[in-house]
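The instructor's notes for this session suggest beginning with a concrete chain rather than abstract definitions. Hand out the sequence below and ask the class to guess, before any prediction is shown, which regions might be ordered.
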Amino acid sequence: MHLGTDGKLDITTLCYVEKDGKYLMLHRVKKKHDINKDKYIGIGGHVEDRESPLECIKREALEEAGLTLLNPRLRGIITFLIDDIYELTFLYTCTDFEGEPGECNEGTLEWIDKAKVKDLPIWEGDILMFDLLNTRDDVFSLKLTYENDVLTNAAAD
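After discussion, reveal the predicted structure:
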């Protein structure tokens, strides 16, 4: 995902594609200067000019993973405050898609058992996000504040 560092709001998307009790995760190991370096995250990215979050996640899934998302479902809106970064992320899940994950220039795509995701190197706030994904059926709001990569505050609606 693209993170703005100019103090202005950056709008991004994030999707966890689901299949056979697993999430498709992107192990971010290919970019040198990457705030997500060595972490596992979902697929997604920066909303482009005049693009809706839904259009963005469909485009990003095709570009990053070679997948055509047929019915992505909005699950949450996450506000990230990371030092001087201010980001609003539209979180989706998707079980209905076409294609098979291919090569990604941002990392390695891997199917990870949902029960093992929390054992991976992920952001601390992602643990809360996955708890909300697994316990709520509605669209939730989550605000995560980090200072020097350490979660200092978390609040869900």
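Then share the key points. The CA atoms of residues 33 and 106 lie 11 Å apart. Helices lie at 53-65, 124-135.
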